[in-house]
Amino acid sequence: MRKFSAPEQQTISSFASGLSAAILLIVLMSLVLFIVLKGSAYFWPSQVFKVTTYDTPNSEVSVFVPSSVNIDEFNQALSDKLDAQFSNSALPMPLIVVEKVDAVYQISLNLGAIQYGKFQQVNTPNSERYQLAELNDVVADVAIFQNQLHDIQTNYLTVLHRKIALLNQSGVGEEAPARLKELEQFTYWQQKAEALRHKLASYNLIFIDAAGQPFDVLVKDIDHLFQPNVMSLFDKISYSGNKIIEFVSESPKQASTSGGVFPALFGTVLMVLLMAVIVAPFGAMAAIYLHEYAPNNMTTSVIRICVSNMAGVPSVVYGVFGLGFFVYTLGGSIDSLLFSDALPSPTFGTPGLFWAALTMALLTLPVVIVSTEEGLRRVPEGLRAGSYALGATKAETIWKTVLPFASPGIMTGVILAIARAAGEVAPLILVGAVKFAPSLPVDSEFPFLHLERQFMHLGVFIYDGAFHNQTNTQGSSMMFASCMLLLIIVFILNLFAIIVRNKLRDRYVRI
């Protein structure tokens, strides 16, 4: 067998390394490109086609279908409207005719549902029929009535309901004048609200579906109304821009198949920042003790081995530990000491933002410890000796000389911790992240930052959406868009940490 010379071995090794790096880069770029292409479909308007199925000479079914729909959803749309079962081998294969219809409108509702149809007329309470060009005037009238209804519900009905509840708690009699007065006012404003609801229900748009059947849509329920088949390039770009703004600023709708992901985006960033604030000082202190103070013996070696092995523990184990220790034990103890009046309704004894941040800090702690200790090893001994020679104590040397020099290593650990914490799902499901949280952890109520509340996380949102919307084209495209947003968030957080690390390296290391 021929032996390769040293230059040949070096050439083969370089070629193999370059090939491996190229393959890895291609796979990574392909994955990112696939996510971007799939996620972009959520923001770009899809053309709508009229699909007519002729099963038999006397059986014809027509539906409006967007071009982004997949075959499973299309078959489901047909099976909902056809009495015949295409799976029956006795039936002939259906004839399908697809045609583009420029007159069709896409009606996006406030709750996230989407309907398609040809516009026919606008109905109002005074029996006048308006054309679509006059829709803005109708929308303005509806907005006035909606504001009036909101004002009645907020400033009158809610206040009166609270007063009546206080009277019930105080044991005031049914025939007491105070109760009768409040009930009279409540009935009056309730009737006013009901009249406004009835008036709002009389403002609607009539459309014709693909089968020629009319259906109505309330004006107050319409979010967007446009014709996707006749949109210009500028209109599509404008639509995509508005869709992106809606995506990052609104809450999910229609079982997380439409709307936005702002609560999940906010919860992800807040949890990661809290985790970084917790893990950075504790990781640095642990690394300083192991490298600067702990004796070089068997016990220290065992501790280092345990820290390294902790990085390989499955994340769900940290979730179970966080649920058992942080939530039930520590949180239950806090409730017993500080919130005993609220028991048995727990405050900190349930999964929440703070326990999620602590659990993720514990999960990423080994990474920060190892990176920080590696940075401490790179500090030249001459710097320590010079500091001691100038009369500094060990603590002063570590704080003013060693730590600044090792700060890039600490930031490296924080970067790795952010990257892992932003994408974890299993532990967060156990310790505080939910698929939908009605209120954010931050609001205008004291103490403003509510660490005990549950929160939404992009990783959990993507997992739940992908699990429940596997055959829903719009829902799956939203999940890919969420993946794209999560990659962008991780990139921005890492980029910020890298900039800080480079500035620290330029200031303390390259001297």
Summary, kept brief:
By secondary structure, the protein is α+β, with helices and mostly antiparallel strands.
For this structure, the quaternary state is single chain
In percent, how much strand structure appears in the residues?
Answer: 5-15%
CATH class descriptor name of the largest domain = Mainly Alpha
Give, in order, the helices and strands. HEEHEEEEHHEEEHEEHHHHHHHEEHH
Per the principal axes of the C-alpha atoms, what is the gross shape? flat
SS-based class: alpha+beta
Q: Give the N-to-C terminal Cα separation.
A: 52 Å
* Number of alpha- plus pi-helical segments: 14
Number of domains: 3
CATH fold topology of the largest domain: MetI-like fold
Mean pLDDT: 80
Number of strands: 13
Give the low-pLDDT segments.
81-93
Give the radius of gyration: 31 Å
* Helix residue percentage: 55-70%
CATH architecture of the largest domain: Orthogonal Bundle
Let me know the largest β-sheet.
Answer: 6 strands, antiparallel
Quick one: CATH superfamily of the largest domain?
MetI-like
